[in-house]
Every structure is written in C-alpha cells, then in structure tokens.
C-alpha cells in the first residue's frame, strides 16, 4: 500500500504492519538523511473518507521514541516529500503509536503511517520545519536580502552638499543602487532562477 524513499537508498515498499491501521518503515543511519518521500504504491487506495498521517520517529538521548507529525498522504495527494534533517531534536507531538512496543535502536529512525479519517487529518497540524523548501521561500529570501542591502546602502546616503572631499574614497550614487535594486526585483519576479544563466 505504501512506499518510502530516501535519496541514495533502495525504495522500501514493504512496510511493517504494527496494527490494523498502522505501518512503519525503518530508516537506518537516519542522521545522514535530509529528506524522505512517502507515497502510495497505487495498488490499494485508502477506503473512502480515509487518509494517512505520516510521522517521523527517532530515539532521543535516552533511547525513548520521539514522534513528530510530518504531514499526510491521501488518494487525492498520494505522495509527499518531507524534510527531516532539522527534526532530529526537540519535542514530540501527539501520535497514535503511543502504546505500541516498536523496537527502537540507537541509529534507526522510523516513518510511521496511521490510517485515519480525513476529518481528523484536517484537524492535525504537522511540524512546520518538515515542509520542503520551495521556490517561494527562495524568492522570499532573495527579496529580504535585496531589501536589507538597499536599506543598508541607503543608510549611508548623503547629499552632495554633505560630502567632504576624500580622494581615497569611492562613491556610488544612490540612484544607481536604486536602479539595480528595481531591475533585480523585476528580473526575479519574471524568473526566480535568472541568475543561473
């Protein structure tokens, strides 16, 4: 029903079923994993009105399992990529795997999938840092960097009357910086990856 993929490793398509509606995949050497893909195989759909909440479980320093909600897969969204590199510390969240005795080894993490009602999935909040970066976050970073540079450079602007002659100092007119800023913003809006060419 489910598959799990980590870059550079073989695809896992046989989940360990730990309860009627709970499945886990083991992730050895989880410290070296940045992203994980969870997907439906396409052989068995979820029953009508059901979906799967996806959890990441890792052992804390005492060997106790810490579960964090990553997100969901459904018949309408049969795959998802999750960033787990920043999740290997911190607090866990409520999860449906609590009473189960799933063996926990020091460098083995797990991806857990719990089949639940879509209504319940909609009420759960995944950990924010599990979302994979997108072009939007790159664009946002670039925009903030541009704003910061423009504000920083503008804070040193002086009028020609305020300038003191200093032959060893180079000056850049503020309107040149503004023109560059506006041009860069325009090009970034048209194509966020223009700088690669």
From TrEMBL:
InterPro entries: Hikeshi-like_C, Hikeshi-like_N, OPI10. Its main location: cytoplasm. Residues 6-129 form the Hikeshi-like N-terminal domain. One of its GO terms (cellular component) is nuclear speck. GO terms for biological process: cellular response to heat; Golgi organization; lung development; protein import into nucleus. It is found in: Cytoplasm; Cytoplasm, Cytosol; Nucleus. This is Protein Hikeshi. It comes from Laticauda laticaudata (Blue-ringed sea krait).
């Amino acid at each position: 029903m489910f598959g799990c993929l980590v870059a550079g490793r073989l695809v896992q398509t046989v989940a360990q079923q730990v309860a009627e509606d709970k499945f886990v995949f083991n992730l050895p050497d989880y410290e070296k994993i940045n992203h994980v893909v969870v997907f439906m195989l396409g052989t068995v759909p979820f029953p009508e009105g059901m979906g799967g909440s996806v959890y990441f479980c890792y052992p804390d320093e005492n060997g106790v399992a810490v579960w964090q909600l990553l997100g969901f897969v459904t018949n309408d969204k049969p795959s998802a990529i999750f960033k787990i590199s920043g999740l290997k510390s911190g607090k866990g969240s409520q999860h449906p795997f609590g009473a189960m005795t799933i063996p926990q080894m020091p460098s083995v993490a797990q991806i857990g999938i719990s089949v639940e009602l879509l209504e319940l999935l909609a009420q759960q909040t995944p950990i924010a840092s599990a979302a994979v970066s997108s072009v939007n976050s790159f664009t946002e970073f670039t925009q903030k960097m541009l704003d910061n540079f423009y504000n920083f450079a503008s804070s040193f602007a002086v009028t020609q009357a305020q300038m003191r002659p200093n032959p060893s100092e180079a000056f850049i007119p503020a309107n040149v910086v503004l023109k560059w800023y506006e041009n860069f913003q325009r090009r970034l809006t048209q194509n966020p990856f223009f700088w690669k060419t």
